[in-house]
Fold each of these.
Amino acid sequence: MIEIEDVSKNFVLHNQGGAVIPVMAGASLSVGRGECVALTGASGAGKSTLMRMIYGNYLAASGRIVVGGVDVARAEPREILALRRETLGYVSQFLRVVPRVPTREVVAEPLLAVGVERGIAMARAEELLGRLNIPEGLWGLSPTTFSGGEQQRVNIARGFAHGYPAMLLDEPTASLDAANRETVLRLIEEAKMRGAAIVGIFHDEAARARVCDREIDVSVFTPKAA
Ligand SMILES: Nc1ncnc2c1ncn2[C@@H]1O[C@H](COP(=O)(O)OP(=O)(O)OP(=O)(O)O)[C@@H](O)[C@H]1O
């Protein structure tokens, strides 16, 4: 479902005389349906960079990144948007809050975007908000004023609303209490059971051991000259 072949990445520092920093070379990785792969490696090894390339935020210098049959490294912007709507979910640590949109709608939005009937989308949103312990009294309010932890849980609910065939998870259990951490681990297990291919960064070692099938140390993709 996610195929990465011989990918390299350089950063060009335009404000520092155009210095070229090679950060990745020969990155290859394959993630099948129902599989969860953890990216590991020291700080600065390139975990976030690889995730951003898979999501199409950073362009690879060479190689292929194929998600659900779409080569992200070569796709048109509208193809990337369709991929993100239908196939590839990204759960970051932080919610991008849209002012005045109620929490229930924020969570249901990915389902409405793929044409799920409104009643079904809202029911799924409410189920997830309940599981993640967001008080019912908050569901009709915009999450703008929510606490950091509440916004993080709303973001997780939104990220797991639609059954994406492929998912990227950036520290999904960071700073959660035990009960909510357990819920997130169950959501990951449920996603795997329905066949999602998952790539994630997990600093929480116990979480990684429980939900990940394999670990890839991205420092093996650090260019030799770097
Ligand atoms: N936009 C950018 N411009 C220039 N260099 C960058 C950029 N983003 C990342 N880098 C460099 O690429 C390397 C990999 O960074 P990256 O954030 O992917 O590491 P990481 O493994 O995710 O680290 P951490 O665990 O600290 O989050 C680092 O040396 C970083 O300085």
Amino acid sequence: MSTLKVEGLAVRADAVELVRDVSFEIGPGERVGLIGESGSGKSLTALSLMGLLPEGVTASGRAALDGRDLVGVPEKRLKRLRGRDLSMVFQEPMTALNPVMRIGAQVAEVMTLHGASRPQAFARTYDLLERVRLPHPRQIAQAYPHQLSGGQRQRVMLAIALANEPQLLICDEPTTALDVTVQKQMLDLIAEVAPALLFITHDLAVVASVCERVLVMYGGRVVESGTIREVFTRPRHRYTEGLLAASKLTPRGTRLPTIQGSVPAAGHFPRGCVFRNRCPHATPDCETAPALTGDGHAHACWHPAD
Ligand SMILES: Nc1ncnc2c1ncn2[C@@H]1O[C@H](COP(=O)(O)OP(=O)(O)OP(=O)(O)O)[C@@H](O)[C@H]1O
């Protein structure tokens, strides 16, 4: 059974249809990317699943999380699911965090809101801060948001999102505001801890490094979907072709981006890998795990099909 099943989702503002006929599924543990140019409808799709559409914007169609409807249900019911069964990490943590509340209290609050006792919630807060690899969790719990770096704040948001063990995590450009090295650490962490993931980005390199499957949106519709490998090596839609051409991704046989860092011994690369001797990040499982290069660009290091 799918964790998330979306069928014929549409989003409207008055008579204007902003998102139409969006259908997809995410299975347990699956990491799915949602890419597309600015204004293509990625955020509205995610917000409609969370029941967080802006005033005057409405969703129709069907979306269900583990069989429970998310669209067209009363706010009271959605409130019980939001932050517990599905949660979301946004681009800018500073706007999502309360500036005058200590970090620990904010992490604990999302658990007490969903029924945990205060002692239980605070005890778990330290574990969660540790799980998102924040150093000195007790000190961080005492801090206010402005005392943390952007990367640390985004880890706090991830801890909050994970607090109630959701079935699905939605991330909307969670690393855009971070510098490249911090971005890579955050992406690795998200890929590791997400139960099932819908990951929104306009960056193909990022989606290739985090997700197994990808949906491409254009003009409010999903125009293409498939595994990263299928979509990035054999794009069917002209828009996807354009996106790939404009990106620094390097599927088999095409131009490589500048790769920084030391190149490991040739024996480290799998046989037949097109990037053999050139790729500093290839590992024996590189076919399914494209990696970010030292300069933050992704390469898709899979074996040639033949
Ligand atoms: N509150 C709103 N009222 C009317 N139109 C809106 C509203 N919010 C978004 N839109 C429009 O809906 C379309 C899709 O917006 P959305 O934010 O989902 O795009 P996006 O793909 O997430 O873009 P970006 O990558 O820039 O965040 C855009 O044309 C946008 O102008």
